[in-house]
Hints:
- The complex is a heterodimer of chains A (229) and B (523).
- By secondary structure, chain A is mainly alpha-helical.
- Chain A has helices spanning 2-20, 28-41, 46-58, 65-77, 83-88, 93-96, 99-112, 116-125, 127-130, 136-151, 157-164, 168-181, 218-222, 225-228; strands spanning 152-156, 185-188, 194-197.
- Chain A is flat, with a radius of gyration of 23 Å.
- Chain B is mainly alpha-helical and 523 residues long.
- In chain B, strands 1-5-4 form a three-stranded antiparallel beta sheet.
- In chain B, helix 4 (90-107) packs antiparallel against helix 5 and helix 19 (439-445) packs across helix 20 (450-464).
- Strand 1 (152-156) of chain A pairs parallel with strand 4 (479-484) of chain B.
- Chain A: One of its GO terms (biological process) is regulation of translational initiation.
Amino acid sequence: xxxxxxxxxxxxxxxxxxxxxxxxxxxxxxxxxxxNDQVSSKTYSxxxxxxxxxxYQFEPDRMSTxxxxxxxxxxxxxxxxxxxxxxxxxxxxxxxxEEQFKTLIVLSHYLETGRFRQFWDEAAKNRHIVEAVPGFxxxxxxxxxxxxxxxxxxxxxxxxxxxxxxxxxxLDKFLEHxxxxxxxxxxxxxxxxxxxxxxxxxxxxPELKKNTADGVPLEHITRIFPILG
Amino acid sequence: xxxxxxxxAPANSAAPASSQSHEVLGYxxxxxxxxxxxFAVHLYRHIREKNVYEIHQMYETSFQTLSERLFKDTPWxxxxxVAHYVxxxxxxxxxxREMWFRHLYARLSPxxxxxxxSWDNYCSLFQVVLHGVVNMQLPNQWLWDxxxxxxxxxxxxxxxxxxxxxxxxxxxxxxxxxxxxxxxYGVLNYLQALVEKSMIIQILEQEKExxxxxxxxxxxxxxxxxxxxxxxGYFSMVGLLRVHCLLGDYHTGLKCLLPIDISQQGVxxxxxxxxITAIYHYGFANLMLRRYVEAIREFNKxxxxxxxxxxxxxxxxxxxxxxKKNEQMYALLAICLSLCxxxxxxxxxxxxxxxEKYGEKxxxxxxxxxxAFAIYDELFSYACPKxxxxxxPSFEEPLVNYNQDAYRLQLKLxxxxxxxxxxxxxxxTFLKVYSTISLGKLANYMEVDEPTLRTxxxxxxxxxxxxxxxxxxxxNADVDFYIDDDTIHVMESKPAKRxxxxxxxxxxxLEGVINDLDRIKLD
Lengths: 229, 523
């Protein structure tokens, strides 16, 4: 209980620092600790991490590639938000050429282009990078489901399985869980296995799309006031 | 004020005086032509009397006229020579020096020492303002120019410093000694301090409740106080957006601008330079964040505005800059529309200008072949901000030029993004033609296998659905679809018939016909 309170206070302090005094080289160690904190407590702060990357930009000698790597993994987990790109914009090219960063960039590329099978294959070959951050697998699966949800009304089981890297009995359990909690429905497709009906949203159901008002700006109407008057 | 005996300077004394000058400089910094003495005296008086209109006239017009006539390629007289005409007023001298350096940067090439001195002057000026002891009212144009020039000189210094290859030992020694000059921390912290000390964010908040009149008064203080700190604080928000863009931190840049509501008029629109700078960087940042629709909207608005109003700025010293930014924003708009085709968002006037300048290129960009990437490269390089490397150089290694590094990184990442969107244009073409199509068939037409097609379609969805700062998802796609098992259903947002516009036109037309009828006399 005491440690939790301590961490709460520390988080509050770091966020405040970033908001009030971000251009200050002295907060660099705090920001680095905060990254490690985000990793272990499964939280995330884009603002704080960008602040740190900026400081590394101002003083390249103080850059820790391990911390940068963790920031990038966290950013990947924030997809579909473009956080990974935002971080790359701040990391010098020669650093991005290092092996571990090239791998992360490849992983990002696969996720950006919907190539989930290749992503999970590559991630499996680099367990040391991705297992360093708890919650990585779940967040990527959440991203995969997000993309599927805006693309499909009904998605074949095999496609879903490949996207979230779960098969067989585990997949059955996963589906059960989402049927119970996320409004998924299971259907039989014409002889080709299960279809998963995903929840309705404005991106996979045109009728739910908000109407772009075909309005006329007031200034245009004022032009004909003399006529109407 | 004591009057001094001075011979009238001949009307065209652009040529430096021979005998009194330092041969090295080629002009005499202590020679003060009569017109300059008069300028300083009057400007000083107007500032003391808070005659904002007259200050503006002198600042905008007189200063330019004198520069054109007497100081085409030499600096203005030194502040020391001018000081005794203005009671050696400390603040006036800081203001005079600010203009002095700005003129130098515009017409000549500053030396390293001059760059450092200019930094010192800004520090002194801002410190005076931050201490709240300033009692002046200055025109918004001048206050904007201060912030704009401050950021510009910082950018210029970073570019200069990064070209280490041909630096003399003297220059290197100076750089090492004055490592605080134009230090990125200093620049950012001064801008931040102006924002904070002025309480401008709170003022803008309270304005929404009707508790403040800042925008209504154009930032001026009608209670006998000073507008300088508040307005500098306000423009510093735009300054921070600009600096963050130069560093490649688009997210934070946009956050800095957030307190300003760009959907409304405001103090930022009171000076055309600030309006353009704010929107240019806002649009660029949104482009890099893939929020194409947002960028297109804002570029469209400002380009229309410039089209309608640029004639009024023909005589102003900012005219060239306005035209340059105008051209750059057309290039950025061409990029946005090629990545994210939209029919409804661009005004007819802007659209026809765009077709004229980039119609040909936009067609080629949407082919996504090597030629297309070359054009994306060309337009991006032409229109992007002058990115900087903020860190101090290493003086140990073999001296190299690294001034292009920052730009090369941003370009590389931008082109990488463009390449990821390569196949989307093809998908769009097919989607426009069908209302439903099976995955198998489309895969055939696109000459890929089904699993690949599925990934392409998911890429299309992901890339066309932008995520804003609050995590909200919006679709940027003008042609959209959903998949039901193995069938694609196209959802075209029909370009809805613009009934409103149609009726307006017909109303006017009918009125014209009726008027004509009335004029006909029947025998």
